[in-house]
Amino acid sequence: MQEKLILVSNDDGYDALGIEALIDVAKEFGRIVAVAPVEGRSGMSHAISIKNPLRLNKLWEKENVSMYSCSGTPVDSVKLALDQVLDRKPDLLVSGINHGSNASISIIYSGTMGAALEGCINGIPSIGFSVLDHSRNADFTLAKKYARVIIEKVLQNGLPENVGLNVNFPVIPENEFKGIKICMQTTGVWKEEFDKRKDPSKQDYYWLTGFFKNHEPENETTDEWALTHNYASVVPVKVDFTSYPAIEILKSWNL
Amino acid sequence: MQEKLILVSNDDGYDALGIEALIDVAKEFGRIVAVAPVEGRSGMSHAISIKNPLRLNKLWEKENVSMYSCSGTPVDSVKLALDQVLDRKPDLLVSGINHGSNASISIIYSGTMGAALEGCINGIPSIGFSVLDHSRNADFTLAKKYARVIIEKVLQNGLPENVGLNVNFPVIPENEFKGIKICMQTTGVWKEEFDKRKDPSKQDYYWLTGFFKNHEPENETTDEWALTHNYASVVPVKVDFTSYPAIEILKSWNL
After folding, report:
1. Which residues of B touch A78 (CB under 8 A)?
2. Residue B206, domain member (yes or no)
3. What is the ipTM of this complex?
4. Is residue B177 part of a domain?
């Protein structure tokens, strides 16, 4: 059987602990090519570099793992990997492990999930992993153990066409962990409260801040519910923004 | 009746012809506050500025229109507008008119649609408009005429909760125009072909380029089909990445 080829990326940069943890798990399953941003690119969503050219550098190679840095976004990293680095379509794309939650609406802001969704669009079984701790020294012990289980299942079973997984782990002691729960994306919103400041020249500037507002905290089928109840959440995801129920409504407008 | 408050943004920058065209249409319906990037931010998707603070400048005010520039992304512009500029939630958000198509999978890379989707997430009826011509001097005549019709209908009827519209216009003579078609997002992918070059120091760099591959060119319910057959496409959109059919499949894995 041909050795599995696994593409790894993230948005915290090639030197983050989270990608190290993910490579450590994924390398048991095949040959790893990691292409990750040269520095943190959190909040980059699905952004691509149109105005600026990209740099790609091979950093190191060790046993069955090679690591490249990309000057662009997480999605740029995946596109460069597929077009310029890999000799064939990978069998799996894994992104993360992200330092911080990408549950609910955070999926759309996340560079880690941007990379995973770019894999989905390209027909590659793709998984984004995150832990609910954005600190640089987040504990990945639990996440690694169950990421291994999920990767193994995906390699065994495959995923439906263009479908990927958004996987989030609570950061709790293992004896409190309740298991893996298949969920839907929670409806919610980040409420902005910009921090307005004056620079030394007395000009205003603004820091983006805010808090997450869950619109359906009691809904047990959602990823936020799972995470607050000590489950890991697995949401099958696909890039189709169409609101199918709204199509009939709009047709009735006779535009 | 209270005057309508309409938030306008885009990704081509506050001085693009497209946003001028959109304001020209929208100002018939109420008071306009435009907050747009200080320069072109195409391809910025749903990116937000986490590492850098933002600048916001009021540029001008004329009759019922005021224009602000934002140093960040299109989504930053919408967030700043909602939190720092507007005195109440707007009745409508319109984004564009984008110079270039945002049909099919391009929706996920687009800053113009990022701004519109940020409106949807915040429960504001939101519409992104685009024309299939990315040149700076694109012709917006047809787009303006039918954007007016669509805006009027949305203000009259509202939109379902968290649903917005992705509207694309062909650039053709009006006598060839077939009308407005309600569609679903086409399944397709941008195939990358990076343009690899050497800089003056003989180091490699890469320009992102590529072409669109339509996976379902014969599907008459899709936006790409509508556009290639001289219709304007209107796709109702919502930010929910969940693949509902995949949930049952994953549950059967007993993770």
Report:
1. none
2. no
3. 0.96
4. yes
